[in-house]
Amino acid sequence: MTNLPPRILIVEDDFIVAADLASQLARLGYTVAGSVATGAEAVVAVRAQAPALVLMDINLRGTMDGIAAANVIRQICHVPVVFLSALSDSDTADRIWLSGAVGSIKKPYHYDDLQTQIAQALNGPPASA
Length: 129
Prior knowledge:
Elements: E1 7-11, H1 15-27, E2 31-36, H2 39-49, E3 53-57, H3 66-76, E4 81-85, H4 90-99, E5 103-106, H5 111-123
Parallel strand pairs: 1-2, 1-3, 3-4, 4-5
Helix pairs in contact: 2-3
């Protein structure tokens, strides 16, 4: 039996950022389950692709932002969500916390931050000694 790498869904409406994320995920040894640009597409993709994790931008095209999409995803399944955003205001931070997200990464993101947040989201926080 082989150990398949975790599948990660990218939800990002900027094609260049989404392509870079896919490249970084491949470098980290993950499989990209798909890439979508709207919150509504994210909900459909989570149902269809059953990813281990969702990397979700907050500002998305369409009427459903990333936080609203994460709330719907949390209601239909227990896929962890890590947010990506350039936003850092307190209202957004509160909405992220209330959404049940397992992490957030500030844009522009760094490879090490991406690696750490994904590992923690998939494996849980490190055990204390």
